[in-house]
Amino acid sequence: MIKKIGIAQLRVGMYVHDFNCDWMEHPFMRNRLLISSDDEIRKVIDAGIRELYIDTDRGLDANAPTAEEVRTDIERELHRIATQQPAAPVRVSVAEEIERAAQVKNQAHQLVRNVMADARLGKAVELDQVEPVVESITASILRNPGALTGLLRIKNKDDYTFLHSVSVCTLLVAFCRSLGMSAEDTRQAGLGGLLHDTGKALVPDHILNKPGRLTDEEFDIIRRHPRDGYEILLKTPGVGPVPLDITLHHHERMDGSGYPDKLPGEAISTFAQMAAIVDVYDAITADRCYHKGMPAAEALRKMHEWSKFHFHPQQVQAFIRCVGIYPAGTLVLLESGRLAVVIEPHETNLLAPKVRAFFSTKSNTYIKPLDLDLSKPLGMGGGDRILSHESPEKWRVEPMKFFGLAA
């Protein structure tokens, strides 16, 4: 049986099933292992891990809730979050925005490549080239946030570092917009998101793209990138305090376990807290050469779980409302037995987004794509509901092929 325990309950002889953290944050070569010494327990504590899952069939038991009980509680809480506040309205459909969004994605991707290349050569970032790209991203988000965020779910493993920066910028802009922040604050946050990983330009490629877990020494090198990026941006004329702060502090955690400064929650700015949420969300949903990304809906559930210690709980809730319980591009199973890809959250009901059905699980065949507004009854473009989010690999389908088609 899988159970969730607090770190104080961890004992030698327990079998760790899941460290319950961003996979990059724990210090072990394997995600599952039998705890064989007090030194290993100390390593887990030093990594800032506060809760984890154990397999009682493979090691010692503990008085703790089961994984199923924890999941039920999280689902109940997410449903509560989803009904608290409506999503921001969209101005155009995904189909109308998708072509422009694709152009913005490509433009931003190339810009980040150039920024990284210049940083490796010791050149300052040219802010006059970065700002127009942030403006283009913001304009796309204002028209329809689901189009660009959905497209950015698709990342080539070789281009992850560059597209991750584009994703963080895009999600931060959407996050700021959903919170009603000013245009200038949103612009500054967007600049910080696009430039937050500039310091990775100084990380050797063999470490950045290593197809396996990093050694302690390699982790130390990776952890230099926030300060390296900060130092690079300090040489950039006109860069503001918000991009500098986001770059330096996007790996800080509310319980003080982050880096580079181990800041406690009250010392971390709102923008850096927001960037930390967005950064981890995008990282854990992306496929890497050494790690399979989790579905976006599942990632939000993990972010909510981790917010007990690592993130600001109210901000995580706000981010969930921003992207929706089922973010754009999510594969879902409908009560009718159809698979559908989420097109965009509904403006008043995050539990009933707009989806495009394209596959029948009953006949195991593709069907003619059909757009549904799940907030409406049968006969008015709805009449179905989501049972669960699904893994594309499970059904051997590619939902993003149907994302952004003309209705």
TrEMBL record:
SMART domains: HDc. InterPro entries: DUF3391, HD/PDEase_dom, HD_GYP_dom. Residues 139-335 form the HD-GYP domain. SUPFAM superfamilies: HD-domain/PDEase-like. It comes from the Bacteria. Signal peptide: none annotated. This is Cyclic di-GMP phosphodiesterase.
